[in-house]
Each structure stands twice: as C-alpha cells, then as structure tokens.
Write a structure and sequence with these properties.
The protein has no helices and 54 strands. It is mainly β and about 575 residues long. The strands form seven sheets. It has a 15-stranded mixed β-sheet with strand order 28-30-32-34-36-38-40-42-44-46-48-53-52-51-50, with no helix packed on it. The chain has a 14-stranded parallel β-sheet with strand order 9-11-13-15-17-19-21-23-25-27-29-31-33-35, with no helix packed on it. Strands 2-4-1-8-10-12-14-16 form an eight-stranded mixed β-sheet, with no helix packed on it. The chain starts with a strand and ends with a strand. It is found in: Secreted. Keywords: Secreted.
C-alpha cells in the first residue's frame, strides 16, 4: 500500500527505487507496479511546491466519482494562499492509498478535506473538521480530532470518528462505526435499508437519521439519543435509557416508544402512535416526557398514561387532552381547547381564543399576554381566574365557586349553590340555577341571579342587577350605590315584592354624625319629603321608574340613590333596615 502524507507549508521530496530526490517541482509516475512508492512532503523552504503524476484515482465532491489522475498538484503559499489541489481524470483505478493530514507549528484555522479513491483505502484525518471519503472498497477512516464527516462509500468500511461531533454516512450492512466514551455528540446517517429492516445505535453514538427513504425501525442505546425517521411513514422508533428525541417524520403511522428518561415525541399525524410503557428492551418508561404535536392529541390511553406533558405546535386550531396524572399542556398561537383531565394540571394557551377545561382545584389556566385572545375556563371545581384570562363557566353538579380577576370577566355558575366574585373590572355575573351569592366588586357590573333565592351585591361602581326568579336580596354597603343621578346610580331591573325580593341597607349607618362606630337603622318615611333629620329613607316615582333615597347627615338632601325599574309603591317590609 502506498502512503501520501500532507504536511502544511512543506517542500515535496519524491523517493523512487533509485533514491533520486527532487525539490519544489516533481513529475513522474505516482504509482508503480513493481514496488510501493512513498511520496512525502518534508520540511523545507517556503513557497509554492508542485507534484505531478499518474496512477492515482481521487474523486471529490466537486469532481467525477472515478477516473485515473493524470495530473495532481499540491501548492502552498506562505502568505494567505492556503492549500489547493487539482485533478485531471482519465480511466478507473483501484490502487490503494493512505492519506494523512498533519499540521505543524500550531497552524490554526486551516480546514483540510481528504477525498480518497476507489480501493481498500485508509484515511487519517487531521485535528480539524475533515471530510473523509472512502468511495469504493473496504476502507478504514480515522477522523481523529475535529467534527469530522466519514463516508466510507460502498463496501464494508470501518469508521472511527475520534473526539468531536462526528457524522457517519452508512451505505452497507457491513459498515462499522466505532466511538469512544464522551468523545462528542455523534450522528449516523443511514443511507440504505438494513437487511433485517432494523438499525440499533452502537455504543457511544448518540443520534441516527434515516435517509434511506425506506421504513427502517430505529433503536437507541443508554445515551441521550435522537432517532429521526425517513418521513415516509410506517416506522418504529425505540428509545432506551437516556433523554431521547423521537421523530418518525411526516409520513404518518409511526410508532414511538420512549423507554426510561425524559423523552420527547414528535407527532405530525393522527395515525402516529406514542408509548412510554416500553423501550427496545421491554422496559417500562419513566422520567418527565413530552409529546410535541401539530395535530389534535390526547395523552389518555394505556400506552401513554404516564406521559406528563403535551405541547401543540404548528399554526392550526387544534386541541390537547391530558391524562390522570399531573400534566402541563401548552397551546400554539391559534385557538386551542386544552383539557388536563384528572390531576392538578397546568395549561398554557398562548395566542388565540382558548378554552380550558378544569376539574381539579389545583388546575391552572395561564395566559401571559393581553394580546392572547379572549379565553374561557370551564371548570367543575372551584376556580380563580389568572391574569389575562377573561371568562369562567362553572360546570358539573357540585357546589363550586368562581372568582374573577382585574379584567372585564364573564362568570357563570352551574345549577348548584355558587359564590361568584367579579373583583375589579366591569364584570358580567350569572348565577343560573341554585341559591347563589353574586359579588360584583369594583367596576360597573352586570349581575343576574338566575333562578333561586340569590344574594346580589353590586359593589363599587354603577351596577345593573337582575334577581331573576325567586326571593332575592339586593345588598348594599356604604359607598356602593354609584352616583346621585338617574343615569349614574345603581339599578335593579326586576324588583318584585310578590317573589319576596328585599333591599338590604342594614350595614349602612343611617346617622353619620354619630361616628364610625355607630350603626343606626333607617326610618322609612314612604314617599314623604325629607324632614332634615338624619336616618330618613324615602322613595319617589318618576318617568316609569322608582328611586330610593337616603339622608344620612340630616341636611334634607339625598346622600345615596337607587333606581328600581317600573313604578313600585314601596313599604318598609321591602327593606332590611
């Protein structure tokens, strides 16, 4: 076997059987049939050196894939010229060569790329990022240091990457990849369909990508693996130990098994199958696992009951469903429906008008921006709205409560007894069925008790209140009446003595002159005018409405006012004084 050694910035010397030595420019047959010939570049003077010969087949990425070199040249410039190689191609050759790159005197930043001929070749890379190409024959490729690409071509090739993040291009079942422990993050690119239809990563190799186009089943090892299918569908990917990334590609009908570790599954078809219950060795999976899906996906089912997290990807309006354990569901930028199922789940909507289903008091619906759409939580458990979530609907048949936030919320109860609190904002509260308690909080709220005997308290702001069917109590505290004009005060839409409705004023001190600790009751004086006595309560009828007014300081003027829609002949029994 002949050997050619490249040395950076050297003169060339050519040794024939006769021992003749040439300097700087050499020509003649590069390969002989009689004896092996060594071509060596030794240290010498700087300048451009050239070497010409015949008999060497040297294909490259930019040249034909076979042929006999008629003219080969190496040159080096001691300025910034770097390395240049040129070829002229003739007929096919099968001579065997070894190429070795070497860099002396700590020359850094020069990239050497080796391109090797047909035949049983041995290629030794440099300390840089090499591309080693064996082409035909049973080759030996040694990458040494650097992030190397090793391509043995056809034949049974032995490839050793060395340290660095190496890439192996495999074309044959007989190709052998060898990596040492902790020698970089390495990738196998599978360009053929294995005879058994299955490829298992060897020791110390992290990743495999199926480029064959065939449905090849891929299996990992105990490292953190990336297993990527062809994208044509129908592939099986098996993780093992380690935190694995499994992606069958866009073809659909892929089956992915995570195994132990924190695994990530990429789903892009409704026919993809995901399981974390067993790996390539039959071991049940564990770890914190995640499905990233561009289609509607559910974590429910016996094969994925222990997968924790689901992230929706892409731009389509798709949905995500959790399982019985604690899940984290994350939506995309479109309108998503997220249902965590049992367990105290975290649901993140992202953009779009999202709908969250909650069934656990520990469930959380998280939005991070006011620009994230108008979002709704439908909960069968008591729930408090988080920031940037607008609406809450209580569901189910249990007694549960709902609390709003600082936004303009829409909160509705179920048909059981509910406590609904709007907090700040102009809220809309609807008790629906049941004997509910509804608190508007701050803001101009709209409150409807629905059926049942409801407690309705508008709070601060100009509130619009409807009791609905049943004996309702409209409750007021000091400072909770709105303004002192017909257009600014609180309004009760459907006050009905016949249904047993009452207006509660007994928490207000009727005589403010007696100090903060006093809580005197009002004296109802009907439709009479004020007499300049603190603590009087009266009503008037005007333009089809009835106004209730109270004087708390005895100046003969109203200090608060309340409007009842319709004309009512009120009596003291209509109030809790």
């Amino acid at each position: 076997m002949a050997t050619l050694n490249f040395y950076f910035g050297m003169d060339m010397r050519f040794f024939e059987d006769s021992g003749t030595v040439f300097h700087d420019s050499i020509s003649g047959g590069m390969l002989t049939t009689a004896t092996d010939t060594l071509y060596q570049i030794d240290e010498g003077t700087a300048g451009r050196d050239s070497f010409y010969g015949t008999g060497l087949s040297a294909p490259s990425q930019n040249m034909p894939f076979s042929g006999t070199v008629n003219r080969w040249a190496y040159s080096y410039d001691d300025g910034m010229g770097g390395l240049s190689i040129g070829w002229d191609f003739y007929d096919f050759s099968t001579d065997a060569m070894t190429f070795s790159n070497h860099v002396l005197n700590d020359q850094v930043g020069v990239l050497f790329s080796d391109y090797v001929m047909n035949g049983a070749d041995e290629v030794n890379g440099s300390g840089f990022d090499d591309y080693l190409l064996g082409y035909g024959g049973n080759d030996i490729l040694n990458g040494n240091d650097g992030n190397d690409t090793l391509d043995g071509g056809t034949g049974a090739d032995d490839m050793l990457g060395g340290s660095g993040d190496d890439t192996y291009l495999l074309d044959d079942d007989s190709d052998v990849v060898t990596e040492f422990f902790d020698a970089g993050n390495d990738t196998v690119q599978l360009r053929f369909e294995p005879f058994v239809g299955f490829y298992i990563l060897g020791e110390n190799v992290e990743n495999v990508r199926n480029l064959s186009g065939a449905a090849v089943h891929l299996a990992g090892n105990d490292l953190d693996n990336q297993l990527v299918g062809s994208g044509n569908g129908g592939e099986e990917l098996y993780g093992a130990d380690g935190d694995d990334y499994l992606n069958g590609g866009a073809g659909g009908n892929d089956s992915m098994y995570g195994g132990a570790g924190d695994d990530i599954f990429i789903v892009d078809s409704a026919t993809d199958f995901v399981s974390d219950n067993r790996d390539s060795f039959g071991t049940r999976g564990d770890g914190i696992d995640e499905v990233r899906s561009s289609v509607t996906f559910s974590l429910q089912g016996s094969d994925r009951f222990d997968i924790e997290n689901l992230t929706l990807t892409g731009t389509a309006a798709i949905n995500g469903f959790g399982n019985a354990i604690v899940n984290t569901l994350t939506g995309n930028a479109a309108a998503n429906l997220l249902n965590g199922g049992a367990g105290a789940d975290i649901m993140r909507g992202g953009g779009g008008d999202d709908i969250y289903y909650a069934d656990n008091g520990g469930d959380r619906a998280i939005e991070t921006s006011a620009a994230g759409g108008t979002d709704t939580v439908r909960s069968s458990a008591s729930f408090t709205l988080g920031n940037f979530v607008e609406n809450l609907q209580l569901t189910g048949a249990e007694i549960v409560n709902g609390i709003g936030n600082g936004l303009d919320n829409r909160i509705s109860g179920n048909n059981q007894v509910n406590v609904l609190s709007g907090n700040a904002g102009a809220d809309v509260l609807n008790g629906n069925g049941g004997n509910d308690a509804l608190y508007g909080g701050n803001g101009d709220d709209t409150i409807d008790g629905g059926t049942g005997h409801d407690w309705i308290e508008g709070g601060v702001g100009r509130d619009l209140m409807t009791g609905g069917a049943g004996a309702d109590i409209f409750a007021f505290n000091s400072g909770e009446f709105g303004g002192l004009s017909a257009g600014a005060c609180d309004r009760i839409v459907d006050f009905s003595r016949a249904q047993g409705d009452q207006i509660r004023l007994n928490t207000i001190d009727a005589n403010s002159a007696n100090g903060a600790t006093s809580n005197e009751a009002f004296t109802f004086i009907g439709s009479d005018g004020f007499h300049g006595v603190a603590g009087e309560l009266r009503y008037i009828q005007n333009n089809g409405a009835t106004y209730v007014m109270g004087d708390t300081n005895g100046d003969g003027a109203a200090d608060f006012m309340l409007r009842l829609e319709g004309t009512h002949n009120l009596v003291a029994g209509d109030f809790l004084l």
